[in-house]
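User: tokens in, sequence out, please.
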């Protein structure tokens, strides 16, 4: 049965067309128009644009050219069809020229060492003033963070403002393009959407990188403030956390390059990094420091010794990096981030504007980063600078997170949390509804701050997996929005072993690894019309699955968050699916049990069930696990579901393999 197309009332579409006709003429209007389009839900956007193509107005041709220039392959086919219709109807479909001018000057802030900087580029467009395009660039997942323009700025004002801003440095057009391209590449790699206005700043991306590797390093150094040894190593830790490899390349030379790649690889996540001691002369320095890092769900304390020298430009550079100690932190250690408790209150947002009016009255609030569906803000009692290292909570009064319809306040001190709670609820018209109060560990909060979970309680499922996922396995899903469906489906079909056509709405694919010990489930793909999810058991498999799936696919996908699927692998087994595929349930159970049997589980002290069955201590832990599964099955409040694996099947698996 063909899926029914969504219906949009003609008067509503007509009103939108009237707005388009007014806004599509001027640059600022076009940016505002893009903001309107962004407000349309992603899944409905193609259908809305398809409906708009039924209005045969001259301005609509410019609109579809704008959509094609801004969104590229994501909407290219739809825009081409619309323009072909207009052409057949006799409308002029020649592409408009969105920008015309000659380069005048460009400036950038000297803040590259913070992995963020502002760039403004002035253009001579033939009038008395200049046209200025302004960027805020971040060399992390935010990439091209924001973009706006100032039209017809008086030339004298422009020159005067730039002379007054001592922290800004003049750069060439090639250098400006290089900075923008580097930031945009971060959007590509992290699959995040860059700032609106690509139809204007595409000229910088098209110009591309024309600097040599050495020129890029020199530019990064020139746009970074002079730093002392302590500040330099703190900036090093910050850049590692941000994954700002371009900045690291500018401050790391010689033997330190392979050491950095070895010690601070992709799976290595810094939680804290601090300088402990600096021993320096005028030309050399030794910096002793420590870091607390997470790697594959284990926590380590690492000690590093950095050797610094003054370069030719008198700036300090890292000549060597030695790891002089690395110890796994025990679960009960005070150093373990899992033992640092924080208090949280979760609210449902009823009035977002009202909430921000309250937050505007809080002192020392600053934005940390934008999240996929919101904003992370932090209240501090000191100004963050490079005299301080990387830390999650030192100097932090509170973290405040807007994530979709949720608002979360997290504090180390309970009294501080209640102060914020009373502030928020003291209004006559309360902008939020309190949903609950939680005490969680630091790393759980850190996971939520990453913006990769859609709901606060999804993170709690990860933390409490020993209880909610009674067999030690938890099923994590990564969701993407699709920009090029044909390319995405082709990649999945290259990877999958088993495919199911569930309905016209979505398909399910399974990728299964064949090993000598039996087939183990690896990854599930669910492909919808404009989205795809990738699901695995645990973070380690998720990293491997994403690396394979995302390879050379960055321009076809947009990361949309992560969540935990409590029903796991078996929620696809609806009654209709079981009727059409009667063998599927047993196949999935066999794959699942093989995966479970050879997976290292925290509930078994890091052993797999196969390893645990070989020792007396492991067998004791295994039977403790079975006892807990039985208790869960016997709990009348817990609806186990006919599709889940039962205790007798776990036991049979162990007995067969022992």
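Assistant: Sequence out:
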């Amino acid at each position: 049965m063909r899926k029914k197309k969504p219906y949009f009332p003609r008067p509503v579409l007509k009103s939108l067309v009237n707005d388009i006709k007014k806004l599509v003429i001027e640059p600022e209007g076009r940016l505002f128009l893009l903001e309107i389009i962004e407000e349309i839900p992603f899944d409905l956007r193609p259908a809305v644009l398809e409906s708009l193509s039924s209005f045969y107005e001259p301005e609509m041709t410019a609109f579809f050219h704008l959509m094609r220039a801004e969104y590229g392959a994501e909407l290219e086919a739809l825009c081409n069809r619309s323009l072909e219709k207009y052409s057949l109807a006799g409308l002029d479909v020649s592409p408009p020229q969105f920008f015309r001018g000659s380069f005048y000057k460009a400036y950038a802030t000297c803040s590259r060492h913070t992995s963020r900087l502002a760039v403004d580029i002035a253009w001579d467009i033939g009038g008395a003033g200049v046209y200025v395009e302004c960027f805020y660039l971040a060399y992390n997942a935010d990439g091209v963070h924001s973009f706006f323009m100032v039209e017809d700025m008086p030339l004298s004002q422009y020159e005067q403002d730039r002379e007054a801003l001592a922290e800004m440095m003049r750069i060439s057009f090639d250098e400006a393009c290089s900075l923008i391209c580097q930031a945009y590449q971060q959007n590509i790699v992290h699959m995040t959407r860059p700032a609106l206005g690509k139809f204007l700043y595409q000229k910088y991306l098209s110009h591309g990188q024309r600097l040599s590797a050495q020129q890029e390093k020199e530019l990064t150094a020139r746009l970074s403030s002079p730093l002392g040894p302590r500040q330099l190593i703190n900036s090093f830790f910050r850049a590692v956390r941000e994954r700002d490899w371009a900045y690291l390349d500018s401050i790391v030379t010689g033997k330190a390059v392979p050491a950095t790649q070895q010690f601070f690889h992709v799976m290595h996540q810094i939680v804290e990094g601090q300088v402990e001691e600096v021993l320096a002369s005028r030309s050399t320095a030794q910096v002793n420091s420590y870091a607390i890092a997470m790697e594959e769900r284990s926590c380590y304390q690492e000690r590093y010794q950095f050797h610094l020298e003054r370069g030719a430009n008198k700036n300090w550079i890292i000549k060597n990096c030695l790891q002089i100690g690395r110890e796994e932190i025990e679960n009960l250690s005070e150093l373990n981030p899992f033992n640092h408790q924080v208090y949280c209150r979760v609210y449902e947002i009823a009035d977002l504007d009202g909430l921000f009016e309250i937050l505007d009255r809080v002192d020392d609030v600053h934005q940390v980063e934008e999240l996929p569906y919101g904003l992370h803000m932090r209240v501090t009692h000191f100004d963050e600078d490079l005299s301080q290292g990387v830390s999650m909570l030192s100097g932090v009064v509170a973290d405040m997170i807007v994530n979709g319809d949720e608002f979360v306040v997290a504090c180390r001190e309970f009294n501080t949390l209640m102060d914020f709670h009373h502030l928020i609820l003291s209004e006559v018209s309360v902008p939020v509804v309190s949903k609950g109060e939680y005490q969680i560990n630091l790393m759980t909060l850190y996971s939520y701050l990453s913006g990769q979970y859609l709901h606060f309680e999804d993170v709690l499922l990860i933390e409490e997996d020993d209880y909610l996922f009674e067999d030690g396995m938890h099923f994590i899903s990564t969701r993407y929005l699709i920009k090029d469906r044909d390319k995405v489906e082709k990649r999945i079909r290259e990877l999958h072993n088993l495919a199911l056509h569930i309905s016209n709405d979505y398909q399910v694919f399974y990728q299964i690894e064949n090993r000598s010990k039996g087939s183990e489930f690896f990854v599930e793909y669910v492909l919808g019309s404009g989205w795809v999810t990738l699901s695995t058991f645990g973070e380690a498999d998720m990293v491997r699955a994403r690396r394979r799936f995302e390879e050379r696919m960055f321009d076809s996908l947009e990361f949309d968050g992560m969540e935990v699927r409590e029903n796991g692998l078996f929620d696809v087994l609806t009654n209709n699916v079981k009727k059409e595929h009667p063998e599927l349930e047993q196949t999935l159970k066999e794959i699942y049990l093989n995966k479970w049997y050879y997976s290292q589980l925290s509930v078994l002290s890091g052993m797999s069930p196969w390893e645990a069955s070989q020792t007396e201590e492991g067998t004791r832990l295994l039977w403790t696990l079975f006892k807990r599964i039985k208790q869960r099955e016997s709990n009348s409040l817990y609806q186990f579901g006919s599709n889940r694996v039962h205790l007798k099947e776990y036991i049979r698996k162990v007995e067969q393999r022992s």
